[in-house]
Amino acid sequence: MIPPERPLKLLDIGCGEGRIAIFFARNGYEVTAFDLSPQGVEKAKRYADEIGVSIKVFQANLSEFRLEEKFDILFSTGVFHYIPEELRKEIFDNYKEFTNENGLNAYSVFVKKPFIPRAPDFEKAAQSWVSGEVFSYYHDWKMESCQEEIFDCNSSGILHKHAVNRMIAGKIFGDL
Question: Where does 9-170 sit in CATH, by number?
Answer without folding.
Answer: 3.40.50.150
